[in-house]
Amino acid sequence: MIMQALMMVALFVGGAAVRVGVPNFPVSWTATEASDIVINQGGTVGPNGAICCDPKSPKCEVQTQSSDGTTYYDGINNRTRSEGGGQIIITLFAIEKQMSVAPNGTCMEYCPTEFPFDPSPFWPDADSKEKVKDLGKTPINGVDANHFQWVEHILGVIKMQTTDFYATLPADPTAMATPVYEHDTLEPFGQHIGDEETSWTDFKAGQPDPSLFAVSGVADCPESPNCGNSVRQHRRLRDGDYGAFAKYL
Question: Could you tell me which residues are beta bridge partners of residue 241?
């Protein structure tokens, strides 16, 4: 049901607070990105915080993923590249492929994308007419950052995700803001299935080197039989491809 609904409707954002001014973020950038994600579908949280599946629950699935690497976000050409843990994932939204790429630039396998490229990865899309809470300044990761919160819905009614986002804002409102940290509570259709935390350091605005997105063997690249793994799911959330994320839950 989650997959079918997400594939059939657009994603909108709603909330209870007054909309705040939108910070400026660069269209293209490079950063060190550290992330932890837990997707819990039927697991039980133990006293030590570990999540386990009951052997008698065959449909139970728990996925965890920690990553620390470099992300290249090319907003001009609708593409992203992430490197970490010995893996390279390049997503070319123009051809609707998220590819696992070898160090020599050859496509090893791909999964199809479902939603278009997200030009605003750090802020809700203005077309959604969402409302954002400005919760003021909060120290986080050793930085005094501004805390913003919003709730994402489909059809403006059904809650999908709560996002707590932290960024440093320049004194000049026309200058670029810098993302610091984000916590996403994943709650499709009101069911809490997981959480994701992401931090950014060494954030640099500017167009990444085009050669980073050069991939050979695309035409002959096979579709992956493992499109639902946690590495790919994490990348989909960060790239805003909620359709593919729901498809492979």
Answer: none
